[in-house]
Amino acid sequence: MSDYAERYAASVMNTFGPPKLVLARGEGAHVWDTDGKEYVDLLGGIAVNALGHAHPAIVDAVTSQLGTLGHISNFFTSAPQVELAEKLLTLLGLEPGEGKVFFTNSGTEANEAAFKLTRRTGRTHVVVAEGSFHGRTMGALALTSKEAYRTPFEPLPGDVTFVPYGDADALAAAVTDETAAILLEPIQGEAGVVVPPEDYLAAARAVADEHGALLWLDEIQSGMGRTGAWFAHLGTGVRPDVVTVAKGLGGGFPIGACIGLGDAGTLLEPGNHGTTFGGNPVACAAALAVIRTIEDEDLLEHVTVLGQKLRDGLAVDPRVTEVRGDGLFVGLELAADVSAEVAAAALEAGFIVNNATPRRIRLAPPLVLTEDDVNAFLEAWPKILDEAMA
Ligand SMILES: *Cc1c(COP(=O)(O)O)cnc(C)c1O
Questions:
Q1: Looking at the domain covering 58-296, what would its CATH class be?
Q2: pLDDT, tens digit (0-9, with 9 covering 90-100), for 261-315
Q3: Closest CA to 360 of 335, 333, 328
Q4: So what CATH class is 2-54+298-389?
Q5: Is 28 helix (H, G, I), strand (E, B) or coil?
Q6: How far is residue 138's CA from residue 25's CA, in Å, rounded to a whole number?
Q7: CB under 6 Å to ligand 1: residues?
Q8: Any other noteworthy remark (predicted)?
Q9: Is 275 annotated as a binding residue?
Q10: Who's near 73: CB < 8 A, 6+ residues apart?
Q11: What's the pLDDT tens digit per position in 77-130?
């Protein structure tokens, strides 16, 4: 560990702080560090490792695609790219022709594409929620609420209004006939898994319609089965104009997508946007393998049942004042600002969790997490809290 930690400090830019572990391998929801210590990974690479680590379906898809056709540029297309675009539209409940997809390599790039798409309405104003996280590139950063992330890089692309998350009246007051889009996460991830009131997205849809603005949902963290549904917004019946996805989409292989529904799918025209790697056959094959496995192994149902068990078990301890989220997207509000201590004690005990804010713990484990993994964590949890709050 120490050897790589020192070499990391000497050779890798210090943007993330010192790494907590040097990891060597993984299998399912478990990872091992270079000392051979095993951990249950309850963060899943931040909601990325949908099928856990080293899942044979992804390994096979990636190796066989790379051995057949790895990269071709966007002068050309390939079967995996077209099949994935069609599949994503189907998962959104659309019929053929009711939407269009732009592929990227990451979440922030998916949001950049969507941000540029909103400019093609002829308007520039975007209304975004406080507590939001939409990425670190200049455009996505302009739409991200945390001032500490934004301030050092100003000026950023402007004309952005931030409103309190979950407050439909504040949204209605901020949106005008000059507004290009309302951008929301259906459940806020980086804020510590914050769930808005039930009718919030419907209210946002109504406000957007009233002013001719687009409703853009960032499902980069909440999508691809994390909540027990393909997308967190699907249960609300709200139809957005734009959906961005990434994280779990490739199950660990980098890929993102900006999906335009209806007319929003044709706002970006030839020459408006581009990417060298986005939509390459290998990434698309990985994503198709993720989706196929979630379907074949009935993982949405598994996520719903296991997520409920996990959240119920965690709610029992009075040192947790609130358990939020859906499926395997879980936020724990602690009774004190000790999330860093809790994350450290959990790591010591062999569990990877995330201290999203000083008082909130976030869990976003692989969708293939097992009941044994959940039982092990629920058994260790009170002792982790004892340790952290001692
Ligand atoms: C992680 C995340 C992003 C940014 O994705 P990157 O792949 O890190 O660029 C954007 N929006 C949401 C909601 C996210 O959780």
A1: alpha beta
A2: 999 999 999 999 999 999 999 999 999 999 999 999 999 999 999 999 999 999 9
A3: 333
A4: alpha beta
A5: strand
A6: 34
A7: 106-108, 111, 133-135, 185, 189-190, 218, 220-221, 246-247
A8: May also have succinyldiaminopimelate aminotransferase activity, thus carrying out the corresponding step in lysine biosynthesis.
A9: yes
A10: 276
A11: 999 999 999 999 999 999 989 999 999 999 999 999 999 999 999 999 999 999
